[in-house]
C-alpha cells in the first residue's frame, strides 16, 4: 500500500505540469483536480477549501477477478454492435524497476533512430526525485534483452526539470528537446544532448534557450513548454509554450506562444530564439500544449488545448473553450511577421480539447485526436456528458474556397473500444491510422477516482472506408491489463515500417512505474468490417483429428495463436492448401508501413523568414525574482539559483512575475456506455455551431 501511495504522490507532480495530464489524472485518481486547482485563476479553490473538501483516494484500486480475454470469434449480434477486436502480440521491452534506478513514469512519444534504438523521457519519480532521458538499444543478434541506459538526469538546475516527450535527432545523432520547468528563469528550457566524443561514454547537455516571460519588465517570451520540438532541413527548432507570449493578458501569465530557435551563425556559438506568434486567448486560442507539424512550404500546424468560441465542460463543472486547430504561414519576402489562421474551432460534439501531434496525410488532409467530445456517452462523474474522445480529419478548402472542413471519422465509446486518445495518430502506406487511448478497452483492473471500472487503455487501428462507403472501421489491436502490461498508454506510436509499433504505458506493471512496449500488429485475421460475417473459418473444413500436422509447404501465414492471447482451440491446424484460407484475407495488407517519423520534418525546407529578434533570451540583464509557485512540485529537491548568471539592473524595485493561476481545461473521462454505432459526424465548415457539452 505504501508503494502505491508513493507512486500516486509522484503522479500528482506529473499531472500538474501539463493540461492534458490533468485529464489523465482524473481517470486514475485525484491528481487531475490538484492540477486544475494549481493552475486555475478566478475559479481556483483556496487551500482551506481543498482541505475542507472530501478526501480523494490516494491509491489506485485493483479489482479482483480474471482479466478479460479478447475473443477471436464472436457471435454475429455482438459483432454488429461493437468494434472488431483481435489480439496483436504485445511485449514489454523494458519495465521500469521499483527501485527507480531507471526513472519512473515514461511520459509520451518515443524517438526511434535509424538503428532501431528508442529514446524517451520520464517525469515525477517519487523515490529519486530525478527525471531522465533514456535510450533503449535493440538486442544483439541471437539475444532478446534490450539494453537500457540513462543518458541524462534532470534534477531541477539550469538544465531544466520535467523533460517533455517528442524528442528530435539531427544527422550527427544529437538529441533535442524541452523541459517544462526550472532553467535560469524557472520557466523551462530548450536543450541539446550531444553524443559522447570518441572514447567517451557521457552525453553532454547544452541549454540552447531558457524561457523568460516577465509581465512587469514587458518581456514577451514564452513560458513553460508543454511539448517537444520539431526540426526543419536547416536545423532550426520549432515548438510551443503553454504560457507567456502576449503582455495584454490581465492575469499577467500569457496565453502561450509559438517559437523558433535557430542554430548559431558561422563562427558563433549562441542559438537565437524568436517568438513567431503570441496567442490572444478566447476565440484566438490559448495554451498550445502539443508538438507542431510542418509542411513542404514551411507552414506550421498545431492545436490549442483551450480557447475558441465554443465551450466544453471542465473537471470542476465549469465551462472552458473546446480548443482550436491553427496554421502559421511564413512571412512573404521582405516581411517578418508570420500569419496565423484558425482552421477549426471545436464545439464538443465534433471533438473537444485536442491533443497530440497533427498528421498531414494524403492530399493534404490533416488528422488529429481530441481527448473528449464526440458522441460517446462518457461523463465526468459530476453529471456532465463530455464524450469519450474522437479522431478527426480536416479537409483543405476546395479551389476558390478558404474554409477547411472538419469531420469526425471515429467516435470512441469507452468500453470496449477505448476512451480518451492522449496522442495523435500515425499512418501506413495503405492509409490506415494507428493510435492509443488512455482508458477503455476490456482491461477490468483499472478504475477512476469514483471507483468505476474505466478500462486500462487500448491500441487501435482505423481502416479507411471501402469504395463507395463513408465509415471508417476500428480494430482494437491490444487491450492493456494494468499489472500484466501496463496501463494509460500515452503519446503517438513509433513504427518500424514492418508492422511493429513502439510506445509507452505511463503506469502499471509490477512496479507501477510503467513500461516500454512493442506491439506486433501482423495477423492472419481478415480486415474486419462491422457488416461482415464474423466467423473466420467460413470457407474451410478443419480436420477433426487433433494430431494432424500442416504440410511443410504451408504458406507461412501465422495462425490465430500468434498473438499473446491464445485461441480456445490451439490444436486445430489449417490445411496447407490455398483454398483453406479465409476468403477475407485476400484484401488484407499485412505489413503496414508508417509514413510518419519522429523527425518527419527533416527533409522539409522552410521559406527563409526571420530577421526578427527574439523577444527575450537567457542573457537578459535583469535579475529574475522567482515566486514560490513557479517552483515544481515538492518532489524536486534540487533548487537552482536563478540569479547565478544575472546582474541586477539599476532598477531595484522589480516585482516578481505573477503566479500562473489560469484555469486549465482538463476533464474527466470515466465510465462509458458503449454505443451501437460509430458513424462519423461532420460539420459543414470550419465554424461550428453545435451546442456545447455540459450545457
Structural account:
The structure is a single chain. This protein is mostly beta strands. The protein has five helices and 38 strands. The chain has a single domain, classed as TolB, C-terminal domain (Neuraminidase, 6 Propeller), CATH 2.120.10.30. 6% of the residues lie in helices and 27% in strands. The strands form eleven sheets. The protein has a five-stranded mixed beta sheet, with no helix packed on it. Strands 7, 8, 9, 10 and 11 form a five-stranded antiparallel beta sheet that branches. A four-stranded antiparallel beta sheet has the order 2-37-36-35, with no helix packed on it. A hairpin with a 5-residue loop joins β31 and β32. The two termini are 40 Å apart. The model is unreliable at 1-82 and 525-695 (pLDDT under 50).
- For the biggest β-sheet, the strand order reads 1-34-33-32-31
CATH fold label: Neuraminidase
Average of pLDDT: 74
- Biggest β-sheet: count, sense, barrel? 5 strands, mixed
Care to count the β-strands? 38
The CATH class is: Mainly Beta
Structural class: mainly beta
Low-confidence stretches: 1-82, 525-695
CATH superfamily: TolB, C-terminal domain
Instruction: Measure the end-to-end span.
Output: 40 Å
Key structural traits:
about 700 residues, mainly beta, Neuraminidase, five-stranded mixed beta sheet, five-stranded antiparallel beta sheet, 38 strands, globular, disordered C terminus
Amino acid at each position: 500500500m505504501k508503494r502505491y501511495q508513493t507512486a500516486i504522490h509522484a503522479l500528482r507532480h506529473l499531472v500538474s505540469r501539463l493540461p492534458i495530464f490533468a485529464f489523465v489524472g482524473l481517470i486514475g485518481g485525484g491528481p487531475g483536480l490538484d492540477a486544475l486547482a494549481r493552475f486555475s485563476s478566478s475559479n481556483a479553490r483556496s487551500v482551506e477549501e481543498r482541505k475542507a473538501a472530501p478526501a480523494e483516494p490516494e491509491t489506485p484500486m485493483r479489482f479482483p477477478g480474471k482479466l478479460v480475454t479478447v475473443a477471436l470469434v464472436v457471435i454475429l449480434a455482438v459483432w454488429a454492435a461493437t468494434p472488431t477486436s483481435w489480439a496483436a502480440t504485445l511485449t514489454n521491452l523494458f519495465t521500469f524497476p521499483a527501485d527507480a534506478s531507471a526513472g519512473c513514469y515514461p511520459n509520451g512519444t518515443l524517438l526511434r533512430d535509424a538503428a532501431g534504438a528508442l529514446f524517451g523521457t520520464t517525469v515525477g519519480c517519487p523515490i529519486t526525485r530525478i527525471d531522465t532521458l533514456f535510450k533503449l538499444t535493440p538486442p544483439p543478434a541471437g539475444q532478446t534483452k534490450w539494453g537500457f541506459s540513462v543518458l541524462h538526469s534532470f534534477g531541477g538546475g539550469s538544465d531544466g526539470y520535467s523533460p517533455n516527450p517528442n524528442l528530435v535527432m539531427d544527422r550527427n545523432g544529437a538529441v533535442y528537446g524541452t523541459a517544462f520547468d526550472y532553467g535560469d528563469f524557472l520557466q523551462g528550457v530548450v536543450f541539446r544532448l550531444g553524443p559522447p566524443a570518441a572514447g567517451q561514454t557521457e552525453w553532454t547537455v547544452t541549454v540552447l534557450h531558457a524561457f523568460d516571460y516577465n509581465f512587469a519588465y514587458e518581456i514577451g517570451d514564452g513560458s513553460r513548454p508543454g511539448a517537444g520540438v520539431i526540426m526543419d532541413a536547416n536545423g532550426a527548432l520549432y515548438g510551443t509554450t503553454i504560457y507567456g507570449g502576449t503582455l495584454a493578458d490581465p492575469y499577467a501569465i500569457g496565453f502561450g506562444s509559438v517559437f523558433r530557435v535557430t542554430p548559431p551563425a558561422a563562427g558563433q556559438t549562441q542559438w537565437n530564439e524568436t517568438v513567431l506568434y503570441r496567442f490572444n486567448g478566447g476565440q484566438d486560442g490559448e495554451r498550445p500544449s502539443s508538438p507542431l507539424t510542418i509542411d513542404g512550404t514551411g507552414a506550421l500546424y498545431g492545436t490549442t488545448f483551450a480557447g475558441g468560441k465554443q465551450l466544453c465542460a471542465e473537471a470542476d463543472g465549469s465551462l472552458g473553450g473546446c480548443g482550436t486547430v491553427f496554421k502559421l504561414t511564413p512571412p512573404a519576402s521582405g516581411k517578418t511577421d508570420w500569419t496565423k489562421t484558425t482552421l477549426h474551432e471545436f464545439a464538443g460534439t465534433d471533438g473537444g480539447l485536442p491533443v497530440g501531434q497533427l498528421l498531414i496525410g494524403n492530399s493534404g488532409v490533416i488528422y488529429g485526436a481530441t481527448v473528449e467530445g464526440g458522441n460517446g456517452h462518457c461523463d465526468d462523474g459530476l453529471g456532465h456528458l463530455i464524450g469519450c474522445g474522437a479522431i478527426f480529419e480536416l479537409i483543405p478548402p476546395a479551389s476558390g474556397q478558404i474554409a477547411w472542413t472538419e469531420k469526425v471519422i471515429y467516435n470512441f465509446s469507452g468500453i470496449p473500444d477505448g476512451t480518451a486518445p492522449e496522442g495523435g495518430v500515425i499512418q501506413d502506406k495503405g492509409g490506415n491510422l494507428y493510435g492509443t487511448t488512455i482508458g477503455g478497452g476490456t482491461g477490468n483492473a483499472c478504475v477512476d477516482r469514483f471507483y468505476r471500472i474505466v478500462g486500462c487503455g487500448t491500441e487501435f487501428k482505423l481502416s479507411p472506408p471501402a469504395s463507395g462507403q463513408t465509415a471508417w472501421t476500428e480494430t482494437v489491436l491490444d487491450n492493456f491489463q494494468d499489472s500484466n502490461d501496463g496501463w494509460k498508454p500515452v503519446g503517438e506510436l513509433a513504427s518500424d515500417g514492418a508492422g511493429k509499433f513502439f510506445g509507452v504505458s505511463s503506469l502499471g506493471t509490477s512496479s507501477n512505474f510503467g513500461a516500454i512496449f512493442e506491439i506486433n500488429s501482423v495477423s492472419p485475421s481478415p480486415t474486419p468490417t462491422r457488416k461482415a460475417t464474423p466467423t473466420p473459418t467460413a470457407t474451410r473444413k478443419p480436420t477433426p483429428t487433433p494430431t494432424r500436422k500442416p504440410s511443410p509447404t504451408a504458406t507461412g501465414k501465422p495462425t490465430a495463436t500468434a498473438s499473446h492471447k491464445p485461441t480456445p482451440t490451439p490444436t486445430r491446424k489449417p490445411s496447407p492448401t490455398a483454398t483453406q484460407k479465409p476468403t477475407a484475407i485476400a484484401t488484407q495488407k499485412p505489413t503496414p508501413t508508417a509514413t510518419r517519423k519522429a523527425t518527419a520534418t527533416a527533409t522539409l525546407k522552410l521559406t527563409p523568414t526571420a530577421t526578427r529578434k527574439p523577444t527575450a533570451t537567457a542573457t537578459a540583464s535583469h535579475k529574475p525574482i522567482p515566486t514560490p509557485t513557479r517552483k515544481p512540485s515538492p518532489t524536486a529537491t534540487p533548487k537552482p539559483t536563478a540569479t547565478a548568471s544575472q546582474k541586477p539592473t539599476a532598477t531595484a524595485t522589480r516585482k516578481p512575475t505573477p503566479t500562473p493561476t489560469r484555469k486549465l481545461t482538463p476533464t474527466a473521462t470515466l465510465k462509458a456506455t458503449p454505443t451501437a454505432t460509430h458513424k462519423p459526424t461532420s460539420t459543414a465548415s470550419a465554424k461550428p455551431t453545435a451546442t456545447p457539452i455540459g450545457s
